[in-house]
Amino acid sequence: MFYAVSPHHDSRSSAIASNSTRNDPRNITDKRYVPTNVRSLIEFLTYHNYDHAISPKILNSPSGKDFNNIVQFLFRLIDPNLSCPGKFEDEVIQMFKYIRYPYNISKNGLSAVGSPHSWPQLLASLMWIM
C-alpha cells in the first residue's frame, strides 16, 4: 500500500468507500474535457519538473506506465516518502481512498487507462489531485 502519514487501516475507510459511489458532477463526457485538462495537466507537470516525456499526443491515450508515472509523481508531491510495495492497481485505489478522493477508481479502468471509457475518469482523478 502507498503509505503516507500512517500505514494503518482506520475506520474512515468504510466512510470513504460509501462516498466513492457518488456520481461525478464534472462533465467528463464533454468532448472538450480531455483536451482542456490534458493541457492543464501538462502545464502542472512541467512546472513541477516532471521527469518523464509528456505531450498532448501521449496524454490523448496514455499507457498504463504513463499513468503510473504521473500518479506516483503527483502522490509524491503530496508526500515525498510514499512507497508502493504492492500491485500498482491495488495501491492506487488505496491511495485515492486514503486522500479521500470522492469517486470510485476501478481496477478495470486502471487496466485499460487510455481507453475512451477509462481515461476521462482517470484524468478527472489526476485533476482533482492537482
Estimated structural class: mainly alpha
Report the order of strands and helices. Answer: HHHHHHH
Q: Residue-averaged pLDDT, rounded?
A: 82
Q: Low-confidence stretches at least 5 residues in length (pLDDT < 50)?
A: 1-20
Termini, distance in Å?
21 Å
How does the major sheet shape up? none
How would you describe what is shown here?
- With 130 residues, the chain is mainly alpha-helical.
- Helix content is 54%, strand content 0%.
- It is built from seven helices and no strands.
- The protein is globular and about 35 Å long.
- The two termini are 21 Å apart.
Secondary-structure topology with pairs:
Elements: H1 12-19, H2 33-47, H3 56-60, H4 64-78, H5 88-98, H6 107-111, H7 119-129
Helix pairs in contact: 2-7
In short:
The protein contains seven helices and no strands.
Features of the shown structure:
mainly alpha; globular; single chain; 130 residues
